[in-house]
Structures are given as C-alpha cells and as structure tokens.
Specification:
mainly alpha
Length: 76
C-alpha cells in the first residue's frame, strides 16, 4: 500500500496548501489591522503602520499574480 502513495509529494501539497490557504489571508488581515491602527496612531507611528499595511497588501497581490503567471505558463 505504501508504494501507491508518494509521501514526499503529499507533504509538499499539504505544506503549500497551508501556506497559501492560511498564510495569505493572515497576511491580508494583518494589513487591514495595521491600516486601522494607523488611523488611531499619531506622528511617525501612523506612517509606519500604513507602510506595513501597504507592504502586506503588495505581497499578497504579488503572490496572486505570481500564481496566475505560473498557471498561465503551464503550471508544472
């Protein structure tokens, strides 16, 4: 039975699914939280919160476009 399952490939799929399935929404949520915190902060802290939020959003968009490019290129 063990010869039918490629455990290494299965582990790769599970890890990738956890990163994309849980990591990206968490990163997006962190960006939203930082953007909300920036409205209540004063001075330099407000700018840092906004910069962190925009960095989180940019990373999420970059990963999405990277995944689309990977799929368009053949996805192998």
């Amino acid at each position: 039975m063990g010869s039918y399952v490629q455990w290494g490939a299965l582990a790769n799929i599970v890890v990738f699914g956890l990163i994309i399935g849980a990591g990206l929404p968490t990163l997006y949520g962190l960006g939203v939280r930082s953007l909300d915190s920036s409205s209540r902060a004063v001075g330099r802290a407000a700018g840092l919160y906004k910069a962190g939020a925009y960095a989180c959003f940019a990373l999420v968009v970059l990963v999405i476009f990277g995944a689309l490019a990977f799929i368009a290129a053949g996805g192998h």
